[in-house]
Write a structure and sequence with these properties.
15 helices; globular; Growth Hormone, Chain: A; 2 domains; about 85% helix; single chain; mainly alpha
Length: about 425
């Protein structure tokens, strides 16, 4: 098969394999760390979990991606990327050890969240640097395939890391601090693998004349605003509507995830360990929905058009989300996890396609930076809204109906735009 042949060729260069190993270890550690945080905040027997605590944890995990992400490139163009991987992962290993100490010592929540926030903020630099370094280890012919393989492999590594964290937490040790220390070890391994590459290998090349950091940051802000203005042009209206639709669907997914966490912790389980198992099962089923979306969406969007596929995804969620969610029973909620994984990721793939095809190349990077900010801020905002609405056990008819109405509004608005 041509794809297998190309993959073999791609994996031949030693430096690409090493860079890929840095990514796999780093994102695997991310998966371990994030699951450990969720388990500590939601499923610690000594903690009385609240929706507000979950919202705080989501803000810690996602806001750095939104606030730091658009500006990471400004500094990455000034620092040796190999050094970013070495020192960034060493710093995260040390911070993760600090998080474990705070967990074991029952420290104030403010210190715990500050430590976790620092770990996830550094992560944005490492991920951006990994993408920027690829052209230095792959020839131009294989760059498209490398760009497809590396992020996908990283996502799988993060998923595997999360699964490993669940296994350690449930089978080996019931200590969240021990799981965080496992993440710290993986960060350290990623730093050590980075050291096997030459310091100059990954760029940036030369010492180009660059503005001061302050001017560069201000330029980044102006670039983002220019990207937003670009979306308001008549030829880009489908992209604007698709981005708005995806933002609202991400909001719905985030609100329902907080509700699921509370239900797993209290209403649908006999204790924290039982609830953690149920959450792992639900997230695994939702991941299967993401995979199904990746398989179905190319065919469906090709037949209907990406915009109409977003309508189908939102309309399906409008009907199925209350039907499966209002019983607040384990079986229907697991089915709902699959449905929402499929519809949310299906709509995201369609949105990516619309943006890539209708936005001018000179603005595409900035638009995707705006997209990244909207995507994560919507998730954090959803957690905040859910924190205000959810009762202690997570059963909220009002939230389920509100989310269904938002899905319905997305479907109706996109359908009207597509007809026009």
């Amino acid at each position: 098969m041509p794809v297998v042949r190309d993959l073999r060729v791609l994996l031949r260069p030693r430096d690409f394999r090493r860079l890929l190993a840095v990514r796999l270890l780093s994102q695997g550690a991310d998966g371990v760390y994030q699951v450990a945080l969720a388990a500590y905040v939601v499923f610690s027997p000594e903690k009385q979990t609240s929706p507000a605590a979950i919202a705080s944890a989501m803000a810690v995990l996602l806001l750095p991606y939104s606030l730091v992400g658009p500006f990471a490139g400004v500094l990455l163009d000034r620092w040796r990327r190999r050094q970013v991987f070495v020192y960034g992962n060493l710093l995260r290993a040390l911070l993760a050890v600090g998080t474990a100490v705070l967990m074991a010592g029952d420290a104030p929540d403010a210190l715990f969240y500050a430590s976790a926030l620092c770990v996830t903020a550094v992560n944005r630099f490492v991920l951006s640097g990994l993408s920027a370094a690829l052209p230095h280890v792959v020839d131009t012919e294989r760059l498209v395939m490398a760009n497809s393989l590396s992020p996908t492999a990283g996502t799988l590594a993060a998923t595997a890391g999360g699964g490993l964290a669940f296994a350690v937490r449930l089978v080996v040790s019931d200590s969240d601090a021990a799981v965080v220390l496992l993440g710290a070890l993986l960060y350290l391994c990623s730093a050590l693998v980075s050291l096997t590459m030459a310091a100059e290998l990954l760029g940036p090349e030369g010492e180009p004349a660059q503005p001061h950091v302050g001017a560069a940051l201000a330029g980044s802000v102006r670039g983002l605003l220019a990207g937003v203005r670009h979306l308001t042009e008549p030829a880009r209206r489908e992209s604007a509507w698709a981005l708005l639709s995806m933002t609202l669907m991400r909001f719905c997914y985030g609100a329902l995830l907080v509700m699921l966490l509370m239900l797993c912790r209290y209403a649908l389980s006999s204790g924290p360990d039982d609830g953690l198992r149920l959450l792992g099962l639900a997230l695994g089923i939702s991941g299967a929905g993401f995979f199904a979306a990746a398989v179905v969406t190319p065919w469906a969007a090709g037949r209907l058009g990406p915009g109409r596929w977003i309508v189908v995804c939102a309309a399906s969620a409008t009907l199925l989300e209350p039907a499966l969610g209002l019983p607040f029973a384990t079986g229907p909620l697991l089915v709902a996890s699959f449905v929402l994984g499929l519809t949310t990721h299906g709509a995201k793939i369609a949105t990516d396609t619309i943006v890539q095809s209708s936005v001018d190349d000179g603005f595409r990077g900035r638009i995707f930076s705006v997209y990244d900010v909207l995507f994560n801020v919507a998730f954090v905002g959803a957690a905040a809204v859910a924190a205000l609405m959810l009762p202690p056990d997570g059963r909220s008819v009002v939230l389920v109906i509100l989310v269904a109405l938002v899905y319905g509004a997305v479907a109706a608005t996109m359908a009207r735009f597509e007809r026009r």
